TrEMBL record:
The keyword Oxidoreductase applies. It holds the Pfam family Acyl-CoA_dh_N. Belongs to the acyl-CoA dehydrogenase family. This is Acyl-CoA dehydrogenase. It comes from Pigmentiphaga humi.
Length: 385
């Protein structure tokens, strides 16, 4: 067992970090920190990520993807600011699902633009009335001649306000008016317009989180996804991957807060000494770094477990939940090291604290994740029981 990155992994991490500094941070800094990025800005960022193979990191190179191991992807992903990497998770999730479940003709129509970062995609499952329980959805697809007709609403969907296409999870009422089968339909905005808007939230305010209404939205028949065999396994592993990735978003934020706190502790003088010379401040810094390092290791371990083909539901759930909780406490402690300055907008730690508050919800709330982990430990179901 070797806990150090290989030289290749270090190089990948450093080159993504340089790209973030050169190409992503300037876009974020030139925009209002409290407003969602515009579509052009997100596309500009996506094209930069596409140059690194990061639009479709899970697809094999032969299919136009990055062909990365999930551990290597996670190491690079951690370098990207979460307001952007949440959009990447959505885009990557959309691409992975299309690749896993679409037929060749659909793949050829939808994938190239998304992989190149020329189009924005997302996946709409959550609705105003259902979140953790995906079986509770009420959006319906019916049939009118050779067109599909969608009716319903999706909420809390990353990228939906600016997307070019969205995979909508809905109840299949094309044959049976009382059907309860869940199917997925690709809605291309240019062919099948729908209303969508941003939702204002506590954190990740430059990110894109929105809601959409499908009101008799007419979609060509060929946009219905009929699952290919073998796709389910790819999808299952992609849910497991998202959780440690979101854990690494928490690590990213806590690392930034730690860097600011360490710098401040060395330079801020009180009672005739740098505050970093005080034992309690050193303990805070030690606690913060311990939280970051344990979180990072748990997330890397989950990703390495997925790469090795091992059962990863519990490990991935544990990694996201632990990283989010430990890193939230770490950001809070880092704010304290800066005293009043820690509360200022200028120092930006308050922004990290609000951003990290978003992470316990998507891809499994902390409660659901503890039950997924508990199910793996005991073999007993508690979520639906
Ligand atoms: C930043 C962000 C990005 C998102 N991106 C997307 C996206 O791209 N696409 C998409 O479809 N959705 C997305 N979502 C929505 C997200 O997946 C849902 O918010 C999530 O599934 C939780 O659903 P809910 O908010 O309706 O909470 P609910 O499911 O209503 O849960 C409310 C509370 O009840 C608890 N709870 C529920 N069931 C149980 C249970 N069985 N046992 C114990 N406790 C329980 C939950 O843990 C939570 O504390 C995103 C959300 C956020 C915040």
């Amino acid at each position: 067992m070797d806990f150090r990155l290989t030289s290749e992994q270090s190089m990948m991490r450093d080159s993504v970090r340089r790209m973030v500094d050169a190409d992503i941070e300037p876009v974020l800094q030139a925009s209002d920190r409290t407003q969602a990025l515009g579509k052009e800005q997100l596309l500009h960022i996506f094209r930069k990520l596409a140059d690194f193979g990061l639009m479709a990191p899970r697809l094999p190179e032969a299919a136009g993807g990055g062909g990365f191991s999930m551990l290597d992807y996670g190491i690079m992903f951690e370098q990207i600011p979460p307001s952007v990497s949440m959009s990447l998770v959505s885009q990557d999730g959309c691409i992975t699902r299309l690749f896993a479940e679409c037929d060749e003709a659909q793949r050829a129509r939808f994938l190239p633009g998304l992989i190149a970062g020329e189009l924005i995609g997302c996946t709409g499952s959550t609705e105003p009335g259902t979140g953790s329980d995906p079986r509770g959805i009420t959006t319906k697809v019916t049939r009118d001649g050779d067109m599909l007709v969608l009716n319903g609403a999706k909420m809390w969907v990353t990228n939906i306000s600016v997307c070019d296409l969205v995979i909508v999870t809905c109840l299949d009422r094309t044959e049976d008016p009382a059907g309860q089968n869940i199917v997925k339909v690709v809605v291309e905005r240019s062919r099948s317009p729908f209303e969508a808007r941003e939702i204002d939230a506590i954190g990740l305010q430059q990110g894109l989180l929105g809601e959409a209404v499908f009101d008799n939205c007419r979609v060509p028949m060929e946009n219905m996804i009929r699952s290919r065999s073998g796709g389910t396994q790819v999808l299952k592993s992609s849910w497991a991957v998202n959780r440690p990735l979101l854990g690494l978003q928490a690590v990213h934020l806590a690392q930034r807060a730690f860097d600011a706190a360490l710098d401040y502790a060395r330079t801020r003088t009180q009672f005739g000494k740098p505050i970093g010379a005080r034992q309690l401040v050193q303990k805070s810094l030690s606690d913060i770094e311990t939280a970051i390092r344990t979180s990072r290791l748990l997330c890397y371990d989950a990703l390495a477990t997925i790469d090795a083909g091992g059962p990863a539901d519990g490990t991935s759930a544990m990694a996201k939940r632990y990283a989010q909780m430990a890193c939230t406490e770490a950001v809070w402690q880092a704010m304290n090291v800066l005293g009043a300055m820690g509360l200022s907008r200028e120092a930006r730690l308050e922004e990290y604290y609000r951003d990290i508050r978003m992470i316990p919800i998507p891809d499994g709330t902390n409660e659901i994740l503890s039950l997924i982990h508990g199910r793996e430990l005991t073999g007993l179901e508690a979520i639906r029981a």
